[in-house]
């Protein structure tokens, strides 16, 4: 009973934009709390307003600094801004990344800026499960814009980036061969490209190479979006107004032709599927499912059953006793 | 018909240890081929013999060189050896890793060594789904030992490492702060620790620090396994016999007290669950499931349904029409 009241109160406070309540709700997401079901039901009518910007790029291009500068640029326009800094390489490097976050303290006392580092705890589908729910909290808390910052070096980041309305890919001059490899994947996901540290040697070359690589992609019809390539010096706040301008232009373009709805629908579907898969995984790992899985694994281990046939039996069992493990 | 014959023939050739057939079966795993069901059914009675060694560590410690040297050490003992080099950070860095693999060419002409780089294609649960099935192919092909080499920098690698009978954690002297962070996670998964590049300054310090950190872990009862810390110079093949000795000791210890069976049962259970989850995910994404998911996502997007309630409905639909999307 006390629990129910807590959730209702917490949700009311988060909807009113109280940072501590927002932080606690995101903690519930990180912890995969059983209270989330109630939280998300209460938040649902208040979501769908935030514009979600994904910001990704290889390590060392200045993502945190750029995020912070982008927050400043949006604050000048009076927007309430949320930041989710997602670190898929955790549990190993969480500490280091947090140290990196020092520049964010520029916004530490601004009540209209919510900043949260989030790590996958390695359960329940990880970030694909947690990120959209944390976004939902920031959305319901009245954020006009939410920036999802990820390290762009792997599959999970691509998935996270695909959860955004608009994806900004950040590069920097002179990053060596590593970036060449990274670019291949990164070229497919950017709506806006930014060459940060544009005051350094090689910025022009990087922008030119990028332009060249983008031009090699599939040919675009005249109505389609052509990703702009911008230059910034985020540490001095230079060029960020142009980034905001490009983002707003992309958003307007998407809203006009229906792409925005398509992307949001896709994001919500991925969120629902991640929750459903996590629930099915829980059911498999629960007492009944677990006993069944162990028995089947024993038969596979001794060679009398193959793993596909065992998987069929595992699923058939779930279907036979759908609620067996979910009862309290 | 022709297809059935191909699979049967391919399996027969792989069981006879023909490298090209082994390679093609692992390609089927990478491609998540529908033929796998038939392949795994045919392989099942011939698996369960291989000793699986996981080898992990941060980038730059000499994993490829160590794997190659370990292969040599096992070859001296007359063992048939398989290597699965797993790269979870693909699609972005696959190319680079392959370049790294040059030392493996020492074994390129040895008919009793199977080497395969494997990347997650980002579907069907990725490496958690593919790795155990690729292992199964190498096992059935008569490998006495299979070495699974992974980059130790994230959650998925920990999962892959947990699929091994014995996990070797590789470190090197003077790797800076990055390793300090990595160590925290790595300390929980190693059965054998190896400080490679032991001819370099700082090797003794690294070994001592490691010993200290391991001693801070949960206290062990006298019967439990105490992970040894060994030193190697893999590029010159030094110290590898001692690594093989430690591995055989660990295997014997596990076999004597039942740990080996427990780990294999756990590995098989994870394999079966990964296959079942991938099948459920496929079913969700199939025509019937997809229409249902889109309709639910629309209601969540407009705020009239929360994502948990939508996930419940999605699962209920799967359970109602279990076979709807799996019929040909």
Automatic annotation (TrEMBL), chains A, B:
Presence of the UniProt keyword Hydrolase in the record: yes
Keyword Hydrolase: yes
Annotated SUPFAM superfamilies: P-loop containing nucleoside triphosphate hydrolases
Keywords: Chaperone, GTP-binding, Hydrolase, Nucleotide-binding
Pfam families: MeaB
Family annotation (PANTHER family): LAO_AO TRANSPORT SYSTEM ATPASE, LYSINE/ARGININE/ORNITHINE TRANSPORT SYSTEM KINASE
Family the UniProt entry places it in: Belongs to the SIMIBI class G3E GTPase family. ArgK/MeaB subfamily.
Protein's recorded name: Methylmalonyl Co-A mutase-associated GTPase MeaB
């Amino acid at each position: 009973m006390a629990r129910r009241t807590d959730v209702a109160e917490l949700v009311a406070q988060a909807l009113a934009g109280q940072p501590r309540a927002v932080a606690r709700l995101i903690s519930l997401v990180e912890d995969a709390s059983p209270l989330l079901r109630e939280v998300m039901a209460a938040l649902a009518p208040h979501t769908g307003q935030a514009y979600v910007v994904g910001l990704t790029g290889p390590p060392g291009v200045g993502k945190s600094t750029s995020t912070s500068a982008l927050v400043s640029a949006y604050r000048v326009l009076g927007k309430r801004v949320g930041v989710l800094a997602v670190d898929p390489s955790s549990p190993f490097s969480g500490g280091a990344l947090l140290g990196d976050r020092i520049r964010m303290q520029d916004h530490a006392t601004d009540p209209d800026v919510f900043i949260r580092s989030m790590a996958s705890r390695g359960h329940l589908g990880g970030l694909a499960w947690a990120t959209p729910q944390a976004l939902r909290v920031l959305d319901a808390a009245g954020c006009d814009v939410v920036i999802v910052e990820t390290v762009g070096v792997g599959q999970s980041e691509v998935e996270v980036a695909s959860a955004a309305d608009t994806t900004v890919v950040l590069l920097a001059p002179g990053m060596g061969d590593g970036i060449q490899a990274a670019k291949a994947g990164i070229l497919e996901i950017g709506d806006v490209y930014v060459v940060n540290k544009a005051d350094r040697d090689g910025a022009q070359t990087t922008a030119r190479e990028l332009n060249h690589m983008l031009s090699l992609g599939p040919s675009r019809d005249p109505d389609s979006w052509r990703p702009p390539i911008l230059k910034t010096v985020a540490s001095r706040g230079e060029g960020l107004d142009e980034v905001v301008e490009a983002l707003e232009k992309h958003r307007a373009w998407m809203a006009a032709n229906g792409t925005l709805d398509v992307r949001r629908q896709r994001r919500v579907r991925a969120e629902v599927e991640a929750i459903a898969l996590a629930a099915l995984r829980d059911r498999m790992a629960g007492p009944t499912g677990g006993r069944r899985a162990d028995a089947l694994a024993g038969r596979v281990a001794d060679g009398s059953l193959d793993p596909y046939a065992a998987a069929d039996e595992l699923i058939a069992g779930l279907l036979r006793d759908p609620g067996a493990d979910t009862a309290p």
